[in-house]
Amino acid sequence: MTTAAAQHTADDVLAWFKSSYSSDEGGDCVEVASCPHAIHIRDSKNPGGPILTLSAAAWSAFLADVAN
Predict the structure, then answer these.
(1) How far apart are CA 30 and CA 1, in angstroms?
(2) d(Cα 51, Cα 3) in Å, to the nearest integer?
(3) Minimal CA–CA distance to 66: which of 19, 17, 8, 33?
(4) Which residues pair with 31 in a beta bridge?
(5) pTM of the model
(6) Within a domain: residue 6?
(7) Is residue 42 in some structural domain?
(8) Which end of the chain is more exposed for a tag (fewer CB within 10 A), N or C?
(9) How would you class 51 by CB atoms within 10 Å of its CB: exposed for 0-12, middle for 13-18, buried for 19 or more?
(10) From CA 9, how far away is CA 38, in angstroms rounded?
(11) 5 compared with 23, residue with greater pLDDT
């Protein structure tokens, strides 16, 4: 997870995306931003909150497990 100090920097350079299946009605959604070597995940209801950072390999493994 990133620290609060790194949060501001992350927001300045990352482009965050929500699934097209997400609505703007305040549901339980996550936002994802990618970099060349990492994937960042945050709660869409709390964009200033903590960010979970995974390696690209860990994100790929997670998606493969979810698909099964």
Answers:
(1) 15
(2) 8
(3) 19
(4) 42
(5) 0.70
(6) no
(7) yes
(8) C
(9) buried
(10) 15
(11) 23
